[in-house]
Give the backbone structure.
Amino acid sequence: MNQADSSTIVVKRTIAATVDELFDAWLDPDSLAQWMHPGTTALSTASVDARVGGAFEVLMHYPDKPLRHHGVYRQIERNRKLSFTWISDATQHSETLVTVEFNVASAGTEIVLTHERLPGQVACAEHTQGWTLAFELLADLAAKPLVLVTFDWVPEMPRGFVRDIRVRWALEEAGLPYRVQSVPFSDRNADHFSHQPFGQVPWLTDGDLSIFETGAILLHLGERSEALLPAGPRGRAETLEWLFAALNSVEMASLPWSLLQFSGNNDGTPGWNMMDSFLKKSRLAHLEPLLAKREWLAGPFSIADIVMADVLRLVDRFDGLADYPACRAYVARATARPAFLKAHADQMAHFAAAD
């Protein structure tokens, strides 16, 4: 860090990534939210209108209250320079100016950030520390090979239940570094269908590998972490049988039941009565005594529990577990895990940021 004068700071960092990748990380709201949260903040939320004269906003969610940063883009030169105003509580709500320059370096890309018009030495010190910590997070983000792709926005009703939560949950349980990328909910183009042939989400990219369907993604992640899938043949086999049971036996019954609940077609028609009986008598009634005797499905917590708990969580949303206390307690245990709480909060914040 160099200080040009009492109101200006300069922070430099070389990051092992291309100029193109790092430039996009400043203007893509999903990426910006993942690294622009230094210090004790949880994941930020961000909105970006990436054009000269366009506005941006970053809400850093500190424990006591969110801290709002906002401004307007003054200059955007692709892969060379960004310039924007920066206003927040930390600038005493005065307009300051940030210029970010991107230079190709032997070890990647050098970022040179100049922050001008800061109101005094305290603000200079605070922003030096903040930008330095943010660059650490940007470097971490650039090093992450796993990319989770989900919609940029969905209506309120499915929020918290969109299938990317299963992948987020698994990534958090395993502690695997990843970043989130958005695709449009309303305009699903040919590239989307090349990754997910049914136009759904999520999919996961791991280097040159692109994987769709949550079961396949979780199995892939399980191969990378014993926190998700035991290495021993017996534990692995038991986990996989319960993974497929959750997807094929239980969700096959719970999903049409839930869709009828969503649509309001739960009024005692023959079709409804058949689906309700099938779910409860043929599935939940058999799960109930099993879950009353064990904490998790196959020994330690695994990808099988991620899927089964998420399947049952949707049933419980419509009070379908009222007569199955062991199933309900199982869902409560699973959703009390820190990894689920973070995955759920991140998904809710992700979709809310696009409202």
